[in-house]
């Protein structure tokens, strides 16, 4: 159990670091009410998890440690749907209804498409 916790924790730490770097890089080149850094992170995270599930999904028992490190750990630390929800509440509270609708719908639709693309690539 300790080994599994360490794998998830290490992967999650790396994912969190990459999440922060995505935010810093995005903020350097883009400023708007649309939360682009979280959008990029969620879409990229969905794509990565699709790839990883596609690669490791067939032999779950033989790849359990890799799954814990990359899928549970890294992707769990990198993707930010809790931030997504908080940002949507903020957009709602600030009466940015068009941005709220565009952001929520685009995140969900493009995220699903990215997971599907990741799975298709691995087949």
Summarize the SSE layout with pairings.
Blueprint: H1 2-29, H2 36-56, H3 64-78, H4 81-93, H5 97-121
Helix pairs in contact: 1-2, 1-3, 2-3, 2-5, 4-5
How is this structure best described in words?
This protein has 123 residues and is mainly α. The protein has one domain (2-121). 83% of the residues lie in helices and 0% in strands. It has five helices and no strands. The chain has helices at residues 2-29, 36-56, 64-78, 81-93, 97-121. The longest helix is centred in the N-terminal third of the chain and has 28 residues, at 2-29. The protein is globular. The model has no long low-confidence stretch (mean pLDDT 92).
Q: Can you give me a brief rundown of this structure?
A:
With 123 residues, the chain is mainly α. The protein has 5 helices and no strands.
Shape: globular
- In DSSP terms (H or I, runs of 4 or more residues), the helix count works out at 5
Helix content: over 70%
Summarize the main sheet: none
Which features would summarize this protein structure in a list?
123 residues, 83% helix, 5 helices, globular, transport, mainly alpha, transmembrane
């Amino acid at each position: 159990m300790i080994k599994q916790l360490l794998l998830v924790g290490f992967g999650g730490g790396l994912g969190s670091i990459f999440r922060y770097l995505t935010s810093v890089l995005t903020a350097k080149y883009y400023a708007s009410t649309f939360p682009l850094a979280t959008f990029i992170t969620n879409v990229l995270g969905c794509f990565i998890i699709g790839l990883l599930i596609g690669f490791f999904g067939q032999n779950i028992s033989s790849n359990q440690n890799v799954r814990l490190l990359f899928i549970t750990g890294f992707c769990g630390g990198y993707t930010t749907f809790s931030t997504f929800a908080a940002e949507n509440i903020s957009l709602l509270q600030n009466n940015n209804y068009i941005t709220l609708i565009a952001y929520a719908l685009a995140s969900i639709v493009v995220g699903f498409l990215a997971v599907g693309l990741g799975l298709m690539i691995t087949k």
